[in-house]
Amino acid sequence: MLHVLISVNNDLIAAEAKYHKTCFASYISKSNLKHKSFKEVEGEASYDTAFKEMAAEISEGIYQGKAYDMSSLLSKYRELLEDKGIKAESYSKQHLKLRLQKHFGEEIVFHQHPDRSKPKVIYSRNISLQDVLNASAAQNARSVSSVSFDATQQIVNTARRVKEEIRKCSGITLRPLNVDDVSLESSRRIIPPSLYWLVRLMITSDESGVDDFDHPCPCVKIEDERRIISISQDIIHCASKARVKLPKQIALAMAVRHLTGSKQLVCLLNRMGHSSSYDELQAVDTSLAMEVLTKVETYETVISSNISPGSFVQFAADNNDLKEETIDGKNTTHATTMVVYQPRRAFGPEPPPPLGIIRRDVVA
Questions:
Q1: Does pTM surpass 0.70?
Q2: What is the pLDDT of residue 45?
Q3: 266: which residues sit within 8 A by CB, 6+ positions away?
Q4: Is a pLDDT exceeding 60 seen at residue 220?
Q5: What pLDDT, on a 0 to 100 scale, did the predictor assign at position 126?
Q6: Cβ atoms 188, 229 nearer than 8 A
Q7: Which of 226, 227, 273, 341 is the most exposed place for a label (fewest CB within 10 A)?
Q8: 355 domain-assigned
Q9: What's the alpha-carbon Rg for the chain, to the nearest Å?
Q10: Of 39-43, 76-80, 168-172, 314-318, the least confident
Q11: Which of 104, 126, 148 is the last residue of a domain?
Q12: Residue 342 domain-assigned (yes or no)
């Protein structure tokens, strides 16, 4: 190179010399121009002081094999500058990189992640590839453990919250049992919103109405809504140790007993948490019978709870004889059965409310 310069008397322009394309591109590159124009005139001493403080903090970590990302370092440096009264919002990563290169020299390496959206990482040049792989494996193991712990804690917190809301459930009254309480709508009002949404989001993908958390709207499919309310009532029944009386449990016990007449089947469903106990079922029957007797004493006749007074009704009566064809007429039954009919939308006042019944425990 010196011989070339001597031969042209150090006048490259007269010799019409040309830059190598790669060298010229490097010479006029943005990073090189920024490096040449890099200045911090205002508060130069404050810039140096803040950088020295940060460099002192990260130097030991770099020498121990730690890595730092440029975004975290830039945020730290800006905080130090602002503590010294310098507005550092416009301070760039490139300026900080030049300072780090000037301070650490060849002792550090800047690594750009393949994903350009992620910041550069700086670490000691003494770190080998094997150290990087070992550190990455250890970090992945810690990350998996951390994620597992967070998920477990989240499940625990969710269960505690749902259980706390179940403790506040009041359920329905069984003595006497109100027919209007044994319905889908009544069951929905009893279920806490947190339990309802938990079961709903596990069973279906229907998230409509989740914004109004405390007042959930029914599912689009009525079949899904029934399953959600049924499972939710089973959870409340088991979590409250059957303290909370629920529409599904008593209705299922009454339906199974009516259809099959099997005490064992009712007891089996109760042990599985799907229905009320047989003793509780007998107590409901007794309370209904006592309500009828109380109405007889009050109105001097038996009136069905869904009959409205003052409206048009129709009666149908017939004799009900059992085993009447005997020689001596003994062991026979002779009764009269009467049926009352009334339109569903009858005019007039509403049916009388259920009468107060004194609670009495029934022993099977």
A1: no
A2: 78
A3: 253, 256, 257, 275, 277, 278, 281
A4: yes
A5: 80
A6: yes
A7: 341
A8: no
A9: 42
A10: 39-43
A11: 126
A12: no
